[in-house]
Write a structure and sequence with these properties.
589 residues; Beta-Lactamase; Rossmann fold; five-stranded antiparallel beta sheet; 21 strands
């Protein structure tokens, strides 16, 4: 709350005005009995304490009511005063100065002769009303001062908040003249460019200025553009947003925000991906192959070289890629994943490289940022790269070699610092032989190969994976499963797992939904596993079935390429020609 002392100059003006009009001295005291205004013989006492003589004022402050003292010096309230019985005052009228129903001071009319006293006595009611109005005037001034102080404080607080923003903020009028800017914007531009008197033309190219000013023509208009600023230190890639600032009579000004592109990527990385926190320890398993993968991942994480992860669908290739990223020095950057199979061929190029405004019919206004730029200073995961069209393979090779990209419709190369991790379930060697995959790209991405074996070849991992899924589904489904029956475990072990770990997760979720107590039994298995088991019991001694399954396992273990077939034939103890006949006979290809 504002103190009466804050408006002492105004109180002095009021006191002098009253004294001039009514020819009677005036004094004003605050709640601490400090005289803050006075006329006549009390003028010299301004700034002095009244605690030894202002006993009338004390009572007014205590009660919040007006007091009229017709006999100063002999009135009971004057008893403590040293001038009692010898007071020079002849008549006294004191009114409280109330603010928010609380007496914060007092104002008094002091008569020193009988003429003044008689005048007030004869018109006492009028003087009381007049003094009350003067007290209200001073209180209103205090209220105004409090309001102004609040505005100053709020303005200072608002400026402090704006200066705390990491993004640059500039406000301009509808003509483009700078009105205000925060510290972040000030750091971006040199002092002579950004001043309260500068214009947008000194900061941006004409097209960007025109786009910004267009935001002032419509209250719903929001302009978003990419800009490259020549800052005090270097050239920075920024995202500019301009939006109208609405007033009582429409748009009054325009707000322009500038955020470094790299910062946007970091925010997206932190907030948009729930599973971005994978670590190497999340790759579960006790088999030799899983232990080797974890060790290899720890070593290659420190490298910048391209990694090629190979394995069947559902083995956890993306999880491994995320783990490598989160273990590397790029973990603060963005991990951007793109599935080369899931996106139509016509759109894949624009997804990877982005495009400029007007690059083709239907192109978004302002253009679009591609995944390579989004992943700058981070990692780009190209899943199922074996399904990428040949013309895009050439572009990917160029990016890996030159470390720069060109947007569709663009003319200037854009440098990118991206580590690429590729993955595929396909036989790239066989695809190269057929001309379906570029040989130069193969050697460029296969710098650090990591193979993930299918689950059927590492069934010792079934136990730890099953326990992990049980723990997770216990929380999700509010279950209390703790054990796996031997029959349930045996059926998991006997199954071939064509869908790998993803299929195991699906099977466990099905069983957990059916479980009613703390043990999973065979009755909780999905019909798929029960059916396969029944077929195995009836067909377990069928020679053709056993031969087909044996060839299938061997074929998948050694790969589908020419060398893989040769190794498979050697392991089976048959010739390569015989293997080809049996592959055709059992329709394994």
């Amino acid at each position: 709350m504002v103190e009466l002392m804050a408006v002492k100059d105004y109180a002095q003006q009021i006191a002098e005005a009253i004294a001039t009009v009514v020819k009677i001295d005036v004094e004003v005291a605050d709640h601490n009995l400090m005289r803050i205004a006075g006329t006549g013989r009390y003028h010299k006492g301004v700034g002095q304490s009244m605690d030894r003589q202002g006993y009338i004022y004390q009572e007014v402050l205590r009660t919040g009511h007006q007091f009229v003292i017709e006999t100063p010096g002999t009135h009971p309230l004057c008893a403590p005063c040293k001038a009692r019985g010898n007071c020079s005052e002849k008549y006294e009228v004191v009114s409280p100065i109330n603010l928010d129903d609380k007496a914060v001071g007092a104002i008094g009319l002091i008569c020193f002769n009988e003429t003044q006293a008689k005048l007030i006595q004869e018109n006492q009611q009028s003087y009381l009303i007049f003094l009350t109005k003067m007290a209200e005037t001073i209180a209103l001034k205090m209220k105004e001062q409090e309001f102004l102080a609040g505005l100053v404080s709020a303005n200072h607080y608002l400026n402090s908040i704006i200066d705390c923003l990491e993004e640059g903020l500039i406000t301009v009028d509808l003509e483009g003249n700078v009105l205000h800017y925060n510290q972040a914007a000030k750091r971006l531009f040199s002092t002579n460019l950004l001043t309260p008197r500068s214009h947008l033309k000194s900061l941006f190219i004409p097209q960007i200025v025109a786009d910004i000013l267009r935001a002032g023509t419509n209250v719903n208009e929001v302009v978003e553009r990419e800009v490259h600023l020549e800052t005090k230190r270097n050239r920075v890639h920024m995202i500019l947003r301009a939006l109208p600032i609405d007033g009582e009579e429409g748009v009054k000004s325009i707000g322009v925000t500038l955020r470094p592109f790299d910062e946007i990527g970091k925010i997206v990385h932190r907030l948009s991906l729930q599973d971005a926190g994978y670590t190497i320890d999340d790759i579960l398993g006790v088999s030799d192959t899983v232990c080797q993968i974890r060790e290899r991942a720890r070593v290659v994480a420190a490298s910048k070289s391209t990694v090629l992860i190979r394995g069947e669908s559902g083995t956890g290739k993306e999880m491994l890629a995320r783990s490598i990223h989160n273990l590397s020095s790029r973990q603060q950057g963005m991990f951007m994943a793109i599935n080369c199979t899931a996106i139509p061929e016509a759109l894949l190029e624009s997804e990877l490289f982005g495009y400029e405004e007007g690059a083709f019919t239907g192109a978004r206004k302002g253009g679009k940022i591609g995944k390579f730029e989004l992943a700058n200073k981070g990692t780009l995961f190209l899943d199922e790269i074996g399904d990428m069209p040949l013309f895009l393979q050439a572009k990917i090779l160029r990016v890996l070699q030159e470390r720069q990209i060109e947007r569709i419709g663009g003319i200037a190369p854009i440098p990118v610092d991206v580590r690429v991790i590729a993955a595929t379930h396909r036989n790239l060697e066989e695809m190269m032989a057929k001309g379906e995959f570029r040989e130069d790209l193969y050697y460029r991405i296969n710098v650090i190969p990591i193979d993930i074996k299918p689950l059927r070849d590492r069934k010792e991992d079934l136990q730890i994976l099953s326990e992990h899924f049980i723990k997770g589904f216990n929380q999700q489904l509010n279950k209390e499963v703790r054990f796996i029956a031997d029959g349930f475990r045996q059926r998991l072990f006997d199954y071939g797992w064509p869908g790998n770990v993803r299929e195991l997760q699906n099977i466990m979720e099905y069983a957990m939904n059916l479980a009613k107590d703390e043990t999973l039994t065979e009755e909780h298995l999905s019909p798929r596993l029960k059916k396969i088991e029944i077929q195995a019991e009836s067909n377990g001694f069928n020679l053709e079935k056993v031969e087909r399954e044996t060839i299938m396992r061997c074929y998948q273990a050694f790969g589908t390429g020419v060398q893989g077939k040769e190794r498979a034939a050697k392991a089976l103890g048959i010739g390569i020609a015989t293997l080809y006949r049996k592959l055709a006979r059992y329709n394994i290809e």
